[in-house]
Amino acid sequence: MPLTRWSSRSKALHGSPGAWTVTVAQREWLAAATEAAAAGGQLLSLWSTATSRGALGPTVWAALLIDGRLLVLELQLADSAQTYRGLQELFPAAARMQRAAADLTGIRSDAADVRPWLRHRAWPADVYPLEMLPPTPTGADVPVDAYAFVRVDGTGVHEIPVGPVHAGIIEPGHFRFSVVGEKVLRLEERLGYVHKGIERRFTELPAVEGHRLAARISGDSAVAFSWAYCQALEGLVEAPVPDRALRLRALFLEVERVQNHLGDLGALGNDAGFAFGLVQFSRLKEQLLRTLDACVGQRYLLDAIVPGGVAVDIADGAVGTLVACVQRTATAARALRAIYDDHAGVRDRFAGTGEVRPELARRLGLTGLAGRASGLGRDLRIDNPWPPYDALRPVLCTRTEGDVAARVAVRFDELEESCRLITGLLNALPAGALRTAVPAPAGPGFGVGLIEGWRGPVFIALQTGETGGVSRCHAHDPSWQNWPVLEHAVIGNIVPDFPLINKSFNLSYSGHDL
Amino acid sequence: MLKTLRTIAAVGIVSEPPPAADQGLRQRAALQSELLAVLGRALAIRHVDAGSCNGCELEIHALNNPIYNIEGLGIRFTASPRHADLLLVTGPVSRHMATALRRTYESTPDPKLVVAVGDCGCTGGIFGDSYATVGPVSAVIPVDVAVPGCPPHPERLLQAILTAVTSERTGIARRS
Question: Is the dihedral of CA A403, A251, A65, A486 positive or negative?
Fold first, then answer.
């Protein structure tokens, strides 16, 4: 295990298996992160706890993934005016997380970029929503934000501003393209438009009800987030989860993966000018949604996972129906893959577009599905399997080209693999209870949840205070890592390929903006 | 190409008949007679995500699948509010999106319809009204039809859109 010199001081964390934490001093913080980076570790998430809400006072947390194992560094600060060493040189993805932490808690890194990230103008710069509640503005008059975009100078360079309202059924965000002719020189993203105060809202809900909010952090990853939340909570109060419930959770997670991959594969065909693909894949997706609705009473599994287990069951009689549907989906997807592969126009648009080479992907910390398409063979279901994945043994799906075609290929491979897992899970569902009672936390505690959602690792850090209420709940979507990489993926491509490249990543705005 | 054509022939037409309008979803009866007299059901929709968790967007996407086949009814999604007859808005409205939503509304030519989508679009939902959100869509722009659900079923969405478009015409017929 890397970082052995810290292990004598480490403590095991509740929740995600194999997770541990180390409290570090200011001078050790950067050294520990450097060692983690040298050992091939990646930054999973970085957040801070404000003075008034944590028992510890102002604290910065860095969650690192080293060979699939989670290490959480905890750095306590003397006061919230004290800065900490930014990790952006080691992990470029840290830059925006540090800016967001400053917006929400006022705790700042020493990084040079001090622009706000999640805060536009909805609340004043000297008010920190996780620390104190901003004065509620009267009415909906929010001044328009003046954000300092980086300007590109040179002959013939012009800017294309896009958003926040986009030209399709998409979430809002702003993209500033600097282009020469049709060629993109630079893309700068401005996110935060759908900031809903989710982390603050968690602290206003009882701990045993937070899973509903977690499922709505990013609706397309509802299973992953609600499972991560429940894993953290169940770890914190040491509540067992019945075997049948664990297997059903894995089933739901794989169904969510299949749903999203079907949607994306259709949309990618459409963005490449092949509407046939959208029609066929959206039909397959709708059939799956309807079968799921008939079998478990939900099309999307926003309310399937609850603390202690699951809220819905699959009747023995419905197992065959769902297996047949999944098998039909896999067969049809295989046939459509052959059509995509044979289509010269589609291949031309996919291949070599939006490339992220493995070296760049590793350097920038690309994660999840997009990472696997750029040669980073990481998947928590395999690297650090949590129950029941320790018994399922999923097959890793990777590509090394890092272009749109590779992200499409990984989706096709994962779709097939998830259908196999679903069939296996359904054919061997153990009998037993669906849930156990989970008591509300009675005092201070800390639990973590870590789940490989369809987009990548989804993370929840749940802290309770003296009375057992939620003092801080940090939620992390893999889009945090991958949004900055999208800026690199589009460099040198033509503007009309942006929607295709963007779709091939399909990142969450809501999961990022929180 | 042959494989593509064979698949198209084998799948055939899977579109289902649309649901009837539901007046229970109506929030206000504005004067949209010009719009409805001229356009009937041929409608251009601008979707605005004003803060949604993206769950509602999944079901709005489903309207375009061949089973609900919203385009087959003469309804299509447009890329600009200036081409739109109806705004389909998901919420809760985040404070950071309130201005963009209002500007989108102002850019949509009169007469215009607004359908608020989902529990959050209708009431603010689980996110409520906070330092970061202003709550329901109706807190920022006038809403004609509101369709609850988390997320609402595509059939319910279609029903809401058809309610916005058809009821006023029925009203005119009744008046004359």
Answer: positive
